[in-house]
Amino acid sequence: MPKLLCITAHPDDEAGAFGGTLLLYHEREVETFVVCMTAGTAARNRGTANTDEELANLRRTEFAASCKMLGVTHGEVLDYPDSKLDRVDLYQAVGDIVLRIRQIRPQVMLTFGPDGGLTGHIDHAMAGTFATIAFEWAGRPDRYPEQLEHGLTPHRTQKLYYHTADFVLPDRQLVSPPTVTTRIEIGKERFAKKHMAFQQHTTQKPLFDRVRKSFSQRLEGTVEMFHLAATRDPREAKLESDLFEDVTEE
Ligand SMILES: [Zn+2]
To answer: Could you read off the pLDDT of 149-165 as tens digits, one per residue?
Structure first.
């Protein structure tokens, strides 16, 4: 089965930024994987949690429910500090993603660009930066050679995409988004399901109204846009409507 690996920063990114696309490719019998770098404990909205640990547990449970609704084959929340991904050890963070790439062996990866996605969040920018370096390094035997001592082998993912859009959010710090190369038409039903998946994050309920507005602002939210940032096989730019276009199964 073809495989798609999505690297995010916070529980709810998988639904808010990538939900329709994850759902669509699940329906096309692609195995989908989400690795979320933080448990989202810097959130202002904390539900019933009194401590960071309680909030982390709540958000991990919500993430699992959202992933289930989106048909994600395997979702994982790592333990990096929320809102501080720019302060973590780069070698460690990239290595954690390299390890998962070598284990999962996806053909396609999705993440945020260094702009930080539509919201410009620093964790989105860093998750995308780590994922980009990991995309390059996972295929090289001279990077993290200690991972290769027990049977794991290097893996070159064929395509790397950044989440992007053809508009910016007027109520945020302005970002300079990656060029749109790929439009994924998710349709009204998947849009509704994406929204339901987002609503599994009940600790973030105060955000629901704002998110619904920004989802539906453009094209009724039924198109998710990406930037093809790098490919294993060198090529010229072209416009696409399918992440697996030109992908070979191996
Ligand atoms: Zn986020």
So the answer is: 989 999 999 999 999 99
- Residues, CB within 5 angstroms of ligand 1 (ion): 9-10, 13
Inter-residue contact 229 to 113 (CB < 8 Å): yes
Residues 106-151 have pLDDT tens digits of 999 999 999 999 899 999 999 999 999 999 999 999 999 999 998 9
Give the separation between CA 31 and CA 105, rounded to whole angstroms. Answer: 11
Which ranges in the chain belong to alpha helices (H)?
Answer: 13-16, 19-27, 52-69, 90-104, 122-137, 187-198, 208-216
Distance 68 CA to ligand 1 centre (A): 19
> Which tens digit of pLDDT belongs to each residue from 56-95?
999 999 999 999 999 999 999 999 999 999 999 999 999 9
CA distance linking residue 245 with residue 240, whole number of Å: 7
Domain chopping of the chain, boundaries: 3-231
CATH number for region 3-231 = 3.40.50.10320
141 alpha carbon – ligand 1 mean position (Å): 32
What distance in angstroms lies between residue 214's CA and the mean position of ligand 1's atoms?
Answer: 14
